[in-house]
Write a structure and sequence with these properties.
The structure is a homodimer of 337-residue chains.
Chain A (H helix, E strand, L loop, with lengths): L5 H8 L3 H8 L7 H13 L6 H8 L4 E6 L5 H16 L3 E6 L4 H11 L6 E4 L9 H9 L2 E4 L10 E3 L2 H14 L5 E5 L5 H16 L8 E4 L4 H11 L8 E4 L4 H12 L8 E5 L13 E4 L2 H17 L10 E2 L3 E3 L8
Parallel strand pairs in A: 1-2, 1-3, 3-4, 4-5, 5-11, 6-7, 6-8, 8-9, 9-10
Antiparallel strand pairs in A: 10-12
């Protein structure tokens, strides 16, 4: 195996390591004659580039992976459109891998992806992903950008929205509309986005001096029929909430159906806010107040960061992280008429 | 870190690359002790087989492509779940490629896919796909199964639903509910599914002796805001329909919003049926009568046919085609209360 390093090339050519590195990356800052000298020596000494930058340069697939839980949620389908817009612009392809919220599949996908099929990945993790070892392993070889559902202990760029603030604002909105018994319907608390939304919820409850015993976080499952039963039970008269915040889009139908079934009027008896990007929110009965995320922009930004790094050295800085705010769109499900 | 290759393993173990390769494939030609040595070193050095080299060698990537227009439509997201269920069961992977309804992208994707990345494809064509030359070209090398949106002049298996009958039944349902001025909102007539639905519509109009001049087919576009304006114009008093059949899910929101805006009551003034698999159909205002397609089953059947052929000779017979019927689910958008 080669022991030729950038440092050795620098010493032999009496140049700085930065110059060697830039020359190898074909930087515009370096003159053509210097580039030629560097490349000639690198070739002569059979220099093998360090880390993943080199393998990217020599073995580009012009393809990136998008590893996401599902496409049935409109957030992900809109984000995909954003990713593909950015990717197409630069002559890349995006391969879409669905984890179906299973950690095992996420691990298997990442392991397989290190075999040269893609140059990097954009990821939104599963509800089961609590430790990031498998992603860290992948990231030793290929760059990763997270969007929406991130792993905070991995040092790479993350494109997120203001989940804490959204949890806070949704709760505050319900309190201002007269709610005092508010339930947050959560999914796995492993997820960065869900725990942030829950943190915002709890803070708003405390800030507005609501009785904390009346305001609960209820964890839903991946099973739609379970969730429907759970919500129906939650709506029984003795401890019925007067406000519900759903942290995932797919709970909307369960909440509305449970209320229909139990003859509970939205918004008069219970007010409902959902984190949702569904186009049909506006034509529901009643129209649904939503926290609407900048899904397209988040996907596009994540892809732009990844592609920029692929054109340069393959390194991605935590500092490139972006937070793009969501909007609270107030409709009839939270307005007393 | 340098890339660990078969060549490097061969050098380190002083064996031929052919021996390493055979040992890694668990060939009977190689002794168990040699296999053990090779596997131990491969593991130690974290050797990952190169995707392309591997598939060339074995001529199997254990991967299939799913080439579809989009994932924002719930038909395709549900079909993907069906495809992935079948694929996972057999130890395959599915790569998802989105054409965004562009023929150019469909052509480019198929062209790229012939490079050994996948063993076959499941396809639903774009609205622009009127001739099948590019698919025929692909099909000379790799097997294709169509689902939903098919090319009829290509001799391969197709998994479809009973679109003609659904167009007929939706129209008949509206006529029986009292409609006599019915509009079918179509997208591209190139699409097999749309032309079949339109044929069913026309036949039902004729069979029930409706005035054909009052019953029209209007072609919508890919642009949501255009469609909204088109539908609003169509609803002006002088020639307003009393029944609408939308052949694609995404038109639902446009129809409902246009009616809201123009203060037209659904179902009293206009009755609405949509081809849709959206979970929210039941909680719309009013709940929406739908033609609901067996999306999951269609995806699963298409994948099952393709995988069966891959386990055999790669040939797919037209005779393996299946038609899985859809259901008309009657809700409040077509019921006079």
């Amino acid at each position: 195996m080669s022991t030729v390093t950038i440092k050795l090339l620098a010493e032999k050519l009496q140049l700085s390591t930065a110059t060697i590195s830039k020359a190898l990356c074909d930087s515009h800052e370096i003159s053509d004659s210097t580039k030629k000298r560097v490349l000639a020596l690198a070739e002569e000494l059979n220099y093998v580039p360090n880390a993943y930058a080199g393998s990217l340069r020599r073995n580009k697939s012009k393809t990136i992976a998008v590893v996401i839980p599902e496409v049935a949620d409109s957030f992900f389908s809109l984000a995909l459109n954003g990713i593909e817009e950015a990717v197409l612009e630069k002559g890349y392809h995006a391969l879409i891998y669905l984890t179906h919220e299973k950690l095992d599949r996420e691990k298997a996908i990442l392991k397989e992806l290190t075999n040269g099929r893609v140059d990097g990945a954009i990821m939104s993790v599963t509800v089961e992903t609590s430790d990031a070892d498998h992603i860290r392993e992948f990231n030793k070889k290929l760059p990763v950008v997270f969007f929406d559902r991130v792993c905070n202990d991995l040092d790479t760029a993350k494109v997120t929205t203001n989940d804490f603030e959204c949890g806070y604002n949704a709760t505050k909105h319900l309190i201002e509309a007269g709610c005092s018994k508010i339930i947050l319907l959560s999914i796995s608390n492993n997820l960065s986005i869900i725990s942030e939304r829950a943190r915002g919820f709890t803070k708003a409850i405390a800030d507005h001096n609501l009785n904390e015993a009346d305001c609960r976080i209820i964890e839903c499952t991946e099973d739609a029929s379970c969730n429907y039963e759970l919500i129906k039970e939650m709506m029984l008269p003795d401890n019925r909430p007067d406000g519900i915040i759903a942290t995932v889009e797919k709970l909307t139908t369960d909440i509305y159906l449970a209320c229909q079934q139990l003859d509970i009027n939205i918004p008069q008896q219970v007010k409902v806010v959902c984190f949702s990007n569904q186009a049909t929110a506006i034509i529901l009965s009643p129209s649904l107040t939503t926290i609407t995320q900048p899904a397209f922009e988040m996907g596009k930004s994540a892809a732009t960061i990844l592609l920029k790094s692929l054109r340069n050295n393959g390194l991605i800085m935590k500092e490139e992280s972006i937070v793009i705010p969501s909007s609270l769109i107030i409709r009839n499900s939270t307005i007393n008429n």
